[in-house]
Amino acid sequence: MDVGALTAGLLTGLREGVEAALVVAIVLAYLARTGNAAQAPKVWLGAGLAAVTSLVAGVVIFRTVGAFEEPYEQLFEATTFLIAAVVVTWMLFWMRRQSAGLRGELHARIDRALGEGTALGLAVLAFSAVIREGLETSLFLVSQATAVGPAATSLLLGALAGLGGAVLIGWLFYTGSRRVDLRAFFRWTGIGLVFLAAGLVSRAVHELVEIGVIPFGGQQAFDLSAVLPHEEGIGQFLRAVFGYTSTPEVTTLVVHVAYLVVVLGLYLRPVRPLPPAARVPAAGSSETATS
What we know:
Helix content: over 70%
Strand content: under 5%
Oligomer: single chain
Structural class: mainly alpha
Order of helices and strands: HHHHHHHHH
Largest sheet: none
């Protein structure tokens, strides 16, 4: 069991799973409060289809990675790493900005679906809300699994445990529990995902340097193999979670540090409140901050 890969998978599954779980919980709670609880199966249908679609997409991408030969394998892996990092980074900032009005926006969409009276309206709503998180999670996990190699099983187990925790948090939210500080949860897990994304970015740069696509900065910055090798122990844990390597190239190291400094600096800035016109008022309850 690779503890580092397990931890990385746990963080990814928990953070991304909670976003989807909260969406489903908000929709179900609103249906129950407005006397439309009988429509809940449509929500579960849409959410279930989104989960299955995301799983299939992840399997297809993972199997595609292994089908290429050098140097196309490295190119495809680097591209996958970069796309996953960009998507996760964008979603972190999007969720951070929009989460204050998420509940009201969902309520408005539910009202439209109920007003139209279409049988699949709520299913489409749940599907569209969950598929975004599901595809993002699948892409991120595939990239991590490719990076950790033989430890992919530990990564998957961690992700499943994280998703299980996300379901629990969603249930607590649905039942009205306030034991989970969602603001703190999303802030700290978001910071963790920034470090995971930084590891993917540096891994992508390493692959591109290795095959000569990036023709500069390929010399070794330092060698900590004798002190903290990345193949075992704490170094292996740091490699799985943070993308650590004991023998980084200069370009890889610079990009890794630059990404962390810039993205963390922007992510930790105070969020400006949205203009009043951009907010959608929640129906009968206060807005929930999840950033």
